[in-house]
Design goal:
With about 290 residues, the chain is an alpha/beta fold. The protein has helices spanning about 15-30, 40-50, 65-80, 105-135, 155-175, 220-225, 230-240, 255-285; strands at about 10, 30-35, 55-60, 85-90, 135-140, 180-190, 245-250. The termini are far apart.
């Protein structure tokens, strides 16, 4: 898909971090960006940066865990800029530092509501519209390198679980949209210099409201000075135009996936040996 000036984009979680990086990168290409975020002030800051650079954008408040909120945000962007050609279902939260069996029911609902349902809501609201236009369009769903492996050094399993779901959703969507003009990409970054470790400040009131989760905050030091969000945004723009399904940003993380794949391969080797032995025993008994 060729990104052309005056196209419309819908980017969630665009008030900061990777979402802001994508919004800025798209705006530099002349795309009109719906900057969507649960934190309206952050969305407005992104819009100001885009406008200072000569781009066009609008701030839209949205809670991606709420289907009606996503639909209303899509309608608002459509009214301002027309058909949406690029959808970046990017909003996400971290839920690190707590063992799985200690995570509260409300926090499970929160992390799944944003990281999984947020992507589902974006797909449901936008893909039918994109197909109806019968014009080139593209969906970018933000997963994580954590959607391909679970880091053994940190308590991030709940987060990774949601990102595995995003990978499966996106691969399935890619399969289903073959033969159409709608492309799909899975963004899977590793460490990016964002404020995702402060996710709890954006928790909706219906799930307990803003809070402080010190367990998350070790990520702030780990992320500081890592890849800048603007670099990720540029990579996403390139992937949209190249039609890439997978967008990896940190080549060094290949070894993490290689280790996981080696363990899986070894398990298949064992299964094959056991099956061969069982078949031989069955033959000997016959």
């Amino acid at each position: 898909m060729i990104i052309e000036p005056a196209m419309a984009a819908f980017v969630t979680g665009a008030g900061s971090g990777i979402g802001r990086g994508m919004a800025l990168a798209l705006a530099r290409r002349g795309v009109q960006v719906g900057v969507c975020d649960i934190r309206g002030g952050d969305a407005a800051d992104t819009v100001r940066q885009i406008e200072l650079a000569g781009g066009k954008a609008m701030a839209v408040g949205v809670d991606v865990s709420d289907r009606a909120s996503v639909e209303a945000a899509v309608v608002a962007v459509e009214r301002a800029y027309g058909d949406i050609a690029i959808a970046c279902n990017n909003a996400g939260i971290s839920l690190h530092g707590v063992p799985l069996h200690e995570i509260t029911a409300a926090d499970w609902e929160w992390v799944m509501g944003v990281n999984i349902q947020g992507v589902i809501h974006g797909i449901q609201a936008l893909v039918p519209r994109m197909l109806a236009t019968q014009r080139p369009a593209h969906v970018v769903n933000t997963a994580s390198i954590g959607g391909f492996q679970v880091n053994p050094n940190f308590l991030t399993a709940a987060y990774s679980m949601t990102k595995y779901a995003v990978v499966a959703l996106s691969e399935g969507l890619h399969n289903e949209l073959q033969g159409t003009q709608v492309g799909v990409s899975i963004l899977a970054p590793a460490a990016v210099d964002t404020r995702i470790h402060l996710s709890e400040r954006s928790r909706p009131e219906r799930l307990g409201g803003a809070t402080v989760r010190p367990q998350n905050h070790f990520m702030g030091d780990l992320l500081k000075g890592s890849m800048p969000p603007n670099a990720v945004g540029d990579r996403v723009v390139d992937a949209i135009e190249s039609g890439d399904l997978y967008i990896f940003t940190h080549p060094d993380t290949r070894q993490w996936l290689d280790r996981r794949h080696a363990a899986i391969s070894a398990a298949f080797d064992k299964a094959e040996r056991l099956a061969t032995t069982a078949a031989r025993h069955a033959k000997e008994r016959s």
